[in-house]
Structure formats: structure tokens, C-alpha cells
Specification:
By secondary structure, the protein is an alpha/beta fold. It has 2 domains: 183 residues, Aspartate/ornithine carbamoyltransferase (Rossmann fold); 155 residues, Rossmann fold (3-Layer(aba) Sandwich). Helix content is 38%, strand content 14%. It contains 14 helices and 11 strands. It has a 5-stranded parallel sheet with strand order 9-8-7-10-11, covered by helices on one side. Helix 10 links the parallel strand 8 and strand 9. Helix 3 crosses helix 8. The longest helix is centred in the C-terminal third of the chain and has 19 residues. Bound molecules: phosphoric acid mono(formamide)ester.
């Protein structure tokens, strides 16, 4: 059976859910592809990798797992954390790494199509992690990998070269959502986990791919409630609202953090995504005061609540919050969690998860 038997143009017309019937676990493109068990398994594996890496013997064991594999990090949109944490995760698993970060120095600048470029990458590497400004780029890469002759041995199978999205247009950032779940789970370790929690998403919800991917993952938890705090022009888009309705996930829309700060279990801040606007370089407009997290809000937060941000941030969190020495401020730990979650993601896609758990 071929992995995919339809034209690229027809594949791209499919809904994400329909695309998943082809993508299965060959690639990681959308948050909708994960079950509760997947999420729990990823978190257990990330914890296990973290613990193993503390000893020289454990670190050597991890580094031996994928030492015969080569990864390409194809990031043509700006990135610090996703790029570096994937690169670090690959190093922890012993992979050789290459990167391509600028279209102007790739043959795409000579007119080569994205399809041809991806097919070329697949000649040299065993994994492609990619960040691209085009919403369809990761789906195109999956289709090319599924069609290409070159396969990679994983378990007992010859599989398409795995594609992992590290951020796709302004719609999807699935691995960020996984590391956010890992961070939320850790923050709620003493208070019953993510089930039953009230989570406030703040900022540019319209163009923020992290909040969209995280919203999709909420279908896996019981009695979770979402609060969208944003000015009207940045409120969550209708496709996510429809998704929440279809999964009976309650939500409300407000325009100020203050209206819910004392009742929520998690606050997830985001930056205005003005890279999608035609603003002059360096001309970032100030954030609406209603969606700025002020130091005084730490006094209003529940003692068990946590404050997350996918980062990078600008003025949407007062600088004093960074240095408040408050354990509920978890966004710097969230970055480190990202590296461990990405170790777990790569280990799972190459089916060495059980080997790690058995160590
Ligand atoms: N959170 C995130 O995607 O950060 P980078 O843009 O720095 O990768």
C-alpha cells in the first residue's frame, strides 16, 4: 500500500482531519493528531530522558540511539527556541545535524520549487524539522516525503523520511503545544493535573499559532475551561471556536486580564504577532494595556496558578515579573521543558521510546 495515493493539489484541499488519515504517525504536523495517551506517553518519556541524561552512562545511552541518523533543521522563519531546542534534542540523541535557515542561500532563490527542494533534502537526511511562513509548507513536505523513493528504516518498516513542523504559517505549532502540556502538567503535579483546570490565553490569539495548537489539545482533557483575553481585533478565530463547540469545551471571551486573573489556574501570555503586518522594521506598536501582565497581578493569582509564555516576549509582561523570584512564573522553565519534549518527540518518531523506558 502506498503511503499516499492522491495528487498534491488534492491532498492540500483536504481538511486537516482528513489529511491525518494519510499522515498517521509518519510525521508530526498538527496538534489534532494526538490522543490523551500520546500526550501522557510523551510527558513520561521526556521525564525519563531528562533523568537518564543526568548520569554519564545515561547520556551515553541516549547518544547511541540515533547516531546513524542525520537531521536537517530547515527554518526559514526566525526562531531561537524551537531551532536550538530541536538541535540540542538531536545532539542528545546522537544525531548528526545540518541546518538551512535562509532561502536566499538555498536554490529556492534560483526558482526551485519547495517540492523539489524538499525532495533534494530527503536525499541526504533521515529527518526534516521545518519552520516555514506558508501554512501548507509542512503538508507539502509530508506529501513529497511520502511519494519519494527514499525510505528510512524505523522498527520493522521502511518509512517515509519523517517531517516535523516547528511552526507552520500562523496556524500550527504542534511541538510547542506538546511542551506547553508538559509544562502545565508539571505545574499541576500537586493539584490533580490538567483536568478540571481553567486556562486563560492572552494576547494575539488570532495570529498566534501556539494558542491555536494548545486549544486543539484541550480535547484530550476533562472539564477544562478556556478564557480568551484579547482586544476584539486579536480574538480567537472561528475555526477554533467551532472546534471547541464540537468537543463541548467551554470558553469565554474577555478583553482584560484583570477580569479573570484571580480565578484561573494558568495564564498563557502571547506577543502581538506583528510580523504578519506590514509594519516598518523596529516599529513594534505598544501592547494594549489590558493584556499586559503586571507585577501586581502576581498578588491576585491563585497560589497554585502558573504563568506561561511560549516566548519570545516584548512588553506584554512587565520586566519585574521575570525577576520576581516567584515559582509560579514558569516560562523560563518552559523553554528547557521544550528541549526534553523534543527529545521525546524524536525518540518516539524513530521508535526508540521503549528502549529509553527500559533503560
Ligand atoms: N516559542 C517559539 O516558537 O520560539 P522561537 O520562535 O524562538 O522558536
Amino acid at each position: 500500500m502506498p503511503v499516499i495515493d492522491i495528487l498534491l493539489s488534492d491532498f492540500l484541499k483536504l481538511s486537516e482531519v482528513d489529511k491525518l488519515s494519510y499522515i498517521k504517525d509518519y510525521a508530526l504536523l498538527y496538534a489534532q493528531q494526538f490522543s490523551r495517551k500520546d500526550l501522557d506517553d510523551y510527558c513520561i518519556l521526556a521525564d525519563k530522558c531528562r533523568a537518564l541524561f543526568k548520569s554519564t552512562e545515561g547520556a551515553q545511552k541516549l547518544a547511541g540511539l540515533l547516531s546513524n541518523r542525520i537531521a536537517l533543521n530547515f527554518f526559514v522563519q526566525p526562531s531561537s527556541r524551537t531551532f536550538l531546542s530541536f538541535s540540542a534534542a538531536q545532539a542528545i540523541l546522537g544525531m548528526k545535524r545540518m541546518s538551512l535557515r535562509d532561502l536566499n542561500i538555498s536554490s529556492i532563490s534560483k526558482g526551485e520549487s519547495l517540492e523539489d527542494s524538499i525532495r533534494t533534502f530527503l536525499s541526504y537526511v533521515d529527518l526534516v524539522v521545518m519552520r516555514h511562513f506558508d501554512n501548507d509548507a509542512a503538508a507539502i513536505a509530508f506529501w513529497v516525503a511520502a511519494k519519494a523513493a527514499r525510505r528510512v528504516s524505523i522498527g520493522d518498516e521502511e518509512r517515509p523520511i519523517p517531517i516535523i513542523s516547528g511552526g507552520s504559517g500562523n496556524l500550527h505549532h504542534p511541538t510547542q503545544a506538546l511542551l506547553d502540556i508538559y509544562t502545565l502538567g508539571k505545574s499541576f503535579n500537586e493539584s490533580g493535573g490538567i483536568d478540571g483546570k481553567k486556562i486563560m490565553l492572552v494576547g494575539d490569539l488570532k495570529r498566534g499559532r501556539t494558542v491555536r495548537s494548545l486549544s486543539y489539545l484541550m480535547k484530550n482533557y476533562n472539564n477544562v475551561e478556556l478564557i480568551f483575553a484579547a482586544p476584539d481585533q486579536f480574538q480567537m478565530k472561528d475555526d477554533i471556536i467551532k472546534f471547541l463547540d464540537s468537543h463541548k469545551i467551554p470558553y469565554s471571551k474577555i478583553d482584560s486580564i484583570r477580569d479573570a486573573i484571580d480565578s484561573v489556574d494558568a495564564i498563557y501570555m502571547t506577543r502581538v504577532q506583528d510580523e504578519w503586518d506590514k509594519v516598518e522594521k523596529g516599529g513594534h506598536p505598544p501592547t494594549n494595556d489590558n493584556v499586559i501582565f503586571k507585577k501586581e497581578y502576581l498578588k491576585l493569582m491563585k497560589p497554585t496558578a502558573c504563568l506561561l509564555h511560549p516566548l519570545p516576549k516584548r512588553d506584554e509582561i512587565e520586566i519585574e515579573v521575570d525577576y520576581a523570584d516567584d515559582p509560579r512564573v514558569v516560562y523560563w522553565r518552559q523553554e528547557r521543558n521544550g528541549m526534553w519534549m523534543r527529545v521525546a518527540i524524536i525518540a518516539t518518531i524513530f521508535q526508540c521510546d521503549q528502549k529509553i523506558l527500559d533503560s
